[in-house]
Design goal:
Helix content: 40-55%
Number of helices: 4
Strand content: 5-15%
Radius of gyration: 13 Å
Largest sheet: 2 strands, parallel
Order of helices and strands: HHEHHE
Number of strands: 2
Amino acid sequence: TSDVFMRFKVGEKALAFPLALGIYEALRQRELLDFDCIIPIPLSPDKEASGEIHRTRLLARELGRLLGTSASYK
């Protein structure tokens, strides 16, 4: 599992969906699926300037799709 997180952290965007699916499944098991929107934590300006992927935005987009709600971000 830590390998998947590390690969996502260093830029493997395709892992956003499987990670979001894991989050979704954990929420589903706890019957916590009623969300109006998902709001990602903003990426720091220095990380954005360096071209780092916006991991929380990617996860929010995928999780929002799975939950049938929107991901809200700028």
